Amino acid sequence: MPHSHGPLGVHAFKGVAGPLALVYAGLIVYASLFPFEGWRSQGLPFWSFTRAPWPQYWTEFDLVSNLLGYVPLGLLLTLALEPLMRARWAVLLAALLGALLSFVLESLQSYLPLRIASNLDWGLNAAGAAIGALVAWASMRLGLLAHWSRFRERWFAPHARGTLVLLALWPVALLYPAAVAFGLGQVFERAEEWLGQLLQGTPYLDWLPMREMELQPLLPGQELLCVAVGLLCPILLGYSIMPSRWRRAVFAVAALAVGYASSALSSGLSYGPLYAWTWVSTPVEYGSWLAVALAAALLWVPRRVAAALLLLALPVSLMLLNNAPTSAYFAETLSDWEQGRFIRFYGLIQWLGWAWPFAAVLQLLVTLTRRAPVSPAS
Questions:
Q1: Domain stops at, among 121, 136, 155
Q2: What does the DSSP 8-state code read for residue 306?
Q3: Rg of the chain (C-alpha set)
Q4: What is the pLDDT of residue 352?
C-alpha cells in the first residue's frame, strides 16, 4: 500500500518511473540482442555461461558500459516500486529484477553468433542495477526529487514532461555517427535499402517509389543550414517550455556546449581521442555561429511561436539531409559501430538518431494543439 509522502511533483515523478523503467528495459533488450539474426543452439544448457572460466579478453570500455548501462534501470525500478512497499524492499527487489533481466539476456546471447554470454557481464549488470537502486534510495532520503520538482516548476511550463524527455535524449542521439554534424533523421536512404532487400523477389518491389535523380552531396551552404537547424532544434524546443528570457539564454548556452561535447565524444569513440574535433569543418563553424545568432534573436518570442518556428524548420532540415547520400567513408564508420565494440549500443542509438526529429514534430503538434492558454515570453 502506498506510504510515501511529499510534494505532488515527487509523486508525479514516481508515477512515470514505472513506464520509463519498462521502456528502458525494452531498450536494454534491444541493445543486448541486436541484430536478432543467426539464432542457433550450441548444445549446452542456457545457464552454462555461469560456470565458464573468467573471460581472458576484456576492455575498460566493456567493464564501464556493462556497469553503467544498468544503473538507470535500477534507479527507475526503485522509484516505481517505492510507493508500493518499504524503501529497503524496493531497493532489494529492483536490484534482483535487474540481475534477473541480465541473466535472461545473457542466456539468450548464447544462441546468437555475434554475441558471447559472459558471467562477467552478468555480474557487472547486476552491480549496476544495485548501484542505481541505492542511488534512488539516497536521492529520496536526501530530498533530491523534491528539489528537482521545485526546479522544474520555476524553469519550465506545466505539461513539459515529454519535451524534457526529448531534450534529455538529444545528446544521446548525437552519439550515433552523423554524416552532417547535428544532422539527425537521415533515414530515408537506409530505409529504401532495407525495404528493397525485404521485398526482393516479390511483386511488391515494383511498388517502391524510385528516385528520378541520383542523390547529390550537400553544397557547403546547404550543410551550413543543416548544422544551424540541427543546433537550433533543441534550443527552440526548450524555448517552447520556458517563458523566462534569461533562463532561455542560459539554456541555449548549455545546449550548445552539450551538443558539441556529444559530437566530439562520438568522433572520439569512432576514430580515437586525437580526432575528436576533426568534424568541426568550415560549414560547421559558420552554421554554429548562425545558430547562436538565431537563438539570441529568438529569445523574446512567445513559447507557442517558438514551437511553430521549429515545426517549420524541422522539415527543411529533414528534406536536405534525406536528399543527400552518405559517403563511403561514413559507411565504413557505421560498419565499425555495427560490428565492433559498439554493437551493444548501435541499435539503440541508431534509432534515437533516426527518430528524434520525428518525435520532436509529434511533441510540437501536441504543444500547439493544447488548449491551455500560453503566456508570452517575459
A1: 155
A2: H
A3: 23
A4: 77
